[in-house]
Amino acid sequence: MSTVRRAAVVLVAVSALALTACGPSDDDAAGGGPTASPSKAASPTKTATPSKPAKPVASPSKSSAGGGSSSDPDYDVFPCSTYDLKFTATLAEPTTSSYLLKITNKSTKACRALGHPSVTFGDLDGQATRRGTAPAIEKAIRLEPGKSAYAGLMGGADDGKGKTVNSIAMTMDTESDLSQTPLKAATPKLYVSPGKNSVTAWMDNAEDALSL
Q: 99: domain range?
């Protein structure tokens, strides 16, 4: 073989070897090799913005009387006033001139009948004294719309010291300075004698109101 041809063969072999050395290895081709650093920094991945949380439910208003909450069915039940009620008086015992007082809730909401009714007699000064003990506020009668409560008004025999009246007026205990329009009821020949006329607390039945 001539010198020129031998030199050409050697040059081809060296070139092939150089190409093999510069090519990617099997590991690099499979992805196992190092990754070339990009010439420019990659833009950061944009994070999805979380959705806004639901608005919180408004806190219930505080009870004006009992400090309850909306989970308490009585927290917004206020004392009954004369604006909530219808009022009647029925003669229960003629010999003692005693009357059954009845109130009925005419409003659209429940209310509580607190304590004793305040009863005055026609144009006479003074009012009936309270007889018996009234339940605590939290145990007072709850009057749903259309429901009634009762109280017993004790009259008296004519002893020559009193007067006869044909009507009475009543206001409710509201545990406040709330102004009320008195409710009136007819009481034919009710005899009013000093110290003898008394009234019970409100009760949920007529029998108890008249027997106390």
A: 82-206
